[in-house]
Amino acid sequence: xxxxxxxxxxxxxxxxxxxxxxxxxxxxxxxxxxxxxxxxxxxxxxxxxxxxxxxxxxxxxxxxxxxxxxxxxxxxxxxxxxxxxxxxxxxxxxxxxxxxxxxxxxxxxxxxxxxxxxxxxxxxxxxxxxxxxxxxxxxxxxxxxxxxxxxxxxxxxxxxxxxxxxxxxxxxxxxxxxxxxxxxxxxxxxxxxxxxxxxxxxxxxxxxxxxxxxxxxxxxxxxxxxxxxxxxxxxxxxxxxxxxxxxxxxxxxxxxxxxxxxxxxxxxxxxxxxxxxxxxxxxxxxxxxxxxxxxxxxxxxxxxxxxxxxxxxxxxxxxxxxxxxxxxxx
Length: 330
Ligand code: GA4
Fold this sequence. Notes:
The protein is an alpha+beta fold. It is 23% helix and 23% strand. It has one domain: Jelly Rolls, CATH 2.60.120.330. The chain is globular. It starts with 30 loop residues before the first strand and ends in a 22-residue tail after the last helix. The protein binds gibberellin A4 (GA4). InterPro entries: DIOX_N, IPNS-like_FE2OG_OXY, IPNS-like_sf, Iron_ascorbate_oxido_reductase, Oxoglu/Fe-dep_dioxygenase_dom.
């Protein structure tokens, strides 16, 4: 395990990216309005083209969100010695600047929690996190069932049952991106500050809610990074690696990253819906066309997770599980 006590400041800046040949057309983030039944028809395309969409009119009561946000602010405002009682992350617990165990760093502090019922959280967060995870998981299941309907998959809980399973290996994360001391454009030469480096999520589906500070960016199919306008009242869903495999590459596990703002704090809360450890992850037979080959070797979520936790954030984790004799859809 790599322990970085004080990484040089220089390492927190992104390498400049090549100017895009197509900078003018910025697509809209797919929007799913749960108050409009016809909105579900956009789900499949959103997962195929972006691996990402925004959900509005979701019905999650604001109190679950605001209570958690204010407790999270209190937690991150407390002295380092108090926060460190919940750490170091192994992988669960409080972490500061160091992400994962393989040398990734970002201008972020976080609390990573296991959502298993027996898990113990820092004071005041226990009930509040449990309540939040329960309502967000229910919304995730509703979306996954609409997706199954749209894909004509039977039973319609084919995805949601993995999140609902008592053994579901789901994770919850609070990220706080604090201001950067003496952050000035002139000193950074316009370079972006790494909050959370580019990566895909290994799980099935991730659901993010943030305060109104920008920072989240997604990688579009044409190779451009697109900044996602923040919206504290909505939830952002992203397809994870496991869902990409279960759909045999039809859905894209979206690469995303967070650029730290430098002057304004960003706070996000993310539920990562994962299957039970023993679950076999493979393309769903009911979805495969006649003579369609699986692009991936079958694996259990335990095997995938074990392998994923040995990688660096930006690595292509699914690469180890691709069947090399197949040509990947792009
Ligand atoms: C990305 C998605 C989740 O935040 C996470 C992350 C995990 C961690 O922070 O410990 C990982 C990362 C994430 C993927 C590769 C490995 C593991 C950091 C890292 C370098 C909790 C998860 O499940 O995978």
